Amino acid sequence: MRGWIAAEYNYNIDDSPYDLGLNSNASRVFVSGEHSISDSLKLYGKVEYGISYIEKQHKDVDFIERLMYIGISSHFGSVEIGRVWSPFYDIAMYSDTNFSFKDTASGAFFSPVSHIAGFGRSNNSIKYKTSFKLDTSKLFFSALIGDQKGDNVNSRVSINTNYGASIRYKYKGYQVGLAHQIANADGLSNYDDSINATIIGGMFNSDSFLIGGNYTIGKNNQYDMGLSGNLVNSKGIEGSIHFRFSKSYKVYTGYNKLTTKKDLYSTEFVNFGLLKNFNKKIAIYTEYRLDLGTTKTSLFFGDAVSVGLVYFISDYSHYF
């Protein structure tokens, strides 16, 4: 078994509707394994659950399915079937590196639409991925089709199928990539028939320094919170920077800005964090969010501060 258990407390200095208080901050456990069928074929799989042990977060739901798939790989690439990471998240992950306040503008998470349309993880899907070595660099490609029938965004909008693809280029610690995701939908306004988004991003990662960011253009992929409740078009930018100045400490910062058509709804904030790790199993952190937005119905309205403790069941060098 692998994963981590976390406890976090958020204090909203202003009256935000997104006041988590004490929460389990995406605690998760998973099991994974693989088996070689032959020299060229390998069978593998993964089951991952989020743990919500703080009752007020999900009432009586203690375990939330995040990933559950089986895959087979060969010289021609890999095929995964089940609940999988979307190709869109291949790029959105470049900025998903902070602990508390993050990843709000791409539409991969924190948007009610994303959990239905498969922008972060996609249900009932078949995903193909492969890579090509180019001398000292590497090119990655993935594509997905998913059956989302029965998933409803709201009382009017339902999802049918979704499709996505991504392409990434990696050279040493550098990565750049592009992805597009589209979900066929019924019940949208203006006679539209799809929810979609295109994302472009980049990342650099070394032992002491990490920087990543992305830019997203979306169609019908966000709510105009607190107003009509309609799905609206959006533009989003996210970024994060981490610097490790000793074996035990690192500082980091992030920036998120989401705007929608006619500024019906927006979110903009910058956050600053400090992490102390005692070893590769235990870490504590604190973050401060400075709100730069104007929409009081934003999920991230107002300044806020968080403190958290994380215990890693297995080593995760990404955080250390």
Automatic annotation (TrEMBL):
Top-level taxon: Bacteria
UniProt KW keywords: Membrane, Signal
Keyword Signal attributed: yes
UniProt cross-references to InterPro entries, sorted A to Z: Gram-neg_bact_OMP, Gram_neg_porin_domain, Porin_dom_sf
Membrane topology per record: Multi-pass membrane protein
Chain ranges of the Porin domain: 19-289
Primary location class: membrane
Subcellular location: Cell outer membrane
Sections of the chain in a coiled coil: none
Protein name (database record): Porin
Naturally occurring in which organism (per UniProt): Shewanella psychropiezotolerans
